[in-house]
Amino acid sequence: MKKVSIGGVLLAVTLAGVSPARAAFVIGGENGWSLSTDGIVNVFGDYRTTSQLPSGNRFTSFLGNNDQNFGVETGLLPSVFGFTVKAPTVNGIDSSVRIGIYPSIQNSNQDHRFDTNPNIDFREIYYTAKGKYGELLAGRALNLYQGKNILTDMTLLTVGVVPGPNTTTTLGHIGYGYLYTNFGPQIRYTTPDLNGFKLAVSVGEPYHVSGATAKTPTPRVETEISYATVFSGGSTFQAWGSTLYQTATRSSAPGVSRPGDQNTSVGGAAGVEAGFKGVDLLASGYYGSGLGMISAQDGDEFGSSSTDAAGNERTQFGFLLQATYMLTPDIKIGANYGQSRQLESDYDKSQRGVAGAFSPMKKQEAAVGMITYNLNKFIQFVGEYTYAQNTWQDGATQHSNSISLGTLFYW
Description:
The chain is an all-beta fold. Helix content is 2%, strand content 51%.
């Protein structure tokens, strides 16, 4: 005979390698197996204006071009429908399987209302086995490098920077304070909790460091060390650091610069967050080379950013500063500001002033102000304003303003 219980409510998002927060529904059998579900539905209406894209050959702008648009869409995090199957505990090992489905709601563009975006995204599918010696994760999950940088951003559950039309989600501070770490196939080991400290190491599927990448014979290796504690009185503190390292072999095809040589992506990231008496303060940042300006290891995906035209890695870094405050048990206000920056390579410098030369991005920055109201344990309303500006190495700029109002349902 099966038994059914209704548990607590999912009040916060935990992704990839972290056990889901209290599931809304747990269906269990007397043989020790159980099935639980959790998730979020989020919908935002946003109005965005963007200035004219500067002319010339330059790094791709995600802000669009002289746009004035209203949209109804998901925010940075799509809606989530998660399932967790837990096996019976055997020999002190707790094991489970997680599948996370992340659909969006908007159409592919305003001219094709019957043509929806690719709106079913299976970002998570992995199993974990946890015991006194630590935890093994195998499958597709959020990568470690800069993972906590995005998870601690208040715009994870809101909107942040609104990109141009025909996108699946908004950006939050992706490319404007941290890089998108992505969800990737991996095998990961995490130590047990050692008085608040944990160390995680993952071996993942390699990415193309450059558009000229021909071979990826070595894995993507990432690490994360973290510390978290709760003090008497309820104050909280956490700190973390993460790293990324991967090499890739360049093509030897005619016309390719540095034929057959190696490109390397290497990066470090860190952050610290403290909460006390309703105030929460956060600072995070990253530094590395061969990383890109939007998603970690862009390759040539977004306008040739990880490497220059001579095949050499560019240097990138960024930071995010944030403060939130609980005005009442149901009302929270917050503000944050972030930058992602890129240094010119020697080749880039040699191209200054050359007619038609490519101009890389120099800086992407954004500031966000937010207020949230919890109607009850399940429903939240959000109001948000975002200003974003892009600056290229040749001094040209572009900016956008957006206002968003939305709601989320948690279970």
